[in-house]
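Progress against Task 2.4 (sequence-to-structure conversion) is shown through the following example record, which the project officer requested during the mid-term review.
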Amino acid sequence: MGSSIYGSIQKIWSELTRTQRRRSLCKHAQPRRSLRSADPRVRDVRHAAVEDSACGKPVVASDHGGLREVVPRDCGARFVNGDERDLAKKIVCLIDNRTARLQASARARQNAESFGWSKIVDRLDEVYGSFL
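Structure tokens generated for the chain above:
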């Protein structure tokens, strides 16, 4: 039974044009309205980091968990998780070093573009296509 379902999915996927696949993936990848309007105090901190990066703000993030995935070191700075002194040091460093701050801002903006829906859908299309 599993192989016949796989065959059916593979047939449907191969018959769709790239545009049709993108539309289908976009439709399912968009965040639900309830998530888009969620209380900012309970949003995932990774979303805030990507949004700040998209605005060209260098992000100072803890070197912990999912933030490592969305905030590369060259897009701001990382501080030791739980170390307030290290956090303060990284912030002051960016404030005092205009060149580093501007470079981090430009890289942050560029990095944030990789999290746009069109890029995500392209990646999903590649992944799904590789299985079929």
